[in-house]
Amino acid sequence: TAYRRQRQMCIRDRSMGLLPDARVTRLDDFNLPPPAEDQLYEITLEPEGGSPTGLPTGPILAKGFGAFQTY
């Protein structure tokens, strides 16, 4: 049996939930905290069902920092 892994969204070393198996995902569907300037966002690869600890344990697939935008 192949070992299945899932992408997981993390903020401040805390899981925000698993990302669906899709090439594009809108993050506004998640219950994210209000953004903070220079807030680190990470997407990690975790075992099926997510991190067993609730903290990121797998390799980081993507990361970025939040920034306030004025229009």
Helical proportion, percent range: under 10%
Multimeric organization: single chain
| Low-pLDDT sequence parts | none
Major sheet: 4 strands, antiparallel
What is the CA-CA span between the terminal residues? 51 Å
Mean pLDDT: 79
Radius of gyration: 13 Å
Instruction: Summarize the helix and strand pattern as letters.
Output: EEEE
**Shape descriptor:** globular
Order of the strands making up the biggest sheet:
2-1-3-4
Strand percent estimate: 35-45%
Note down, in words, how this protein is organized:
The chain has strands at 5-11, 14-18, 40-47, 60-65. It has 71 residues and is an all-beta fold.
Salient structural properties:
mainly beta
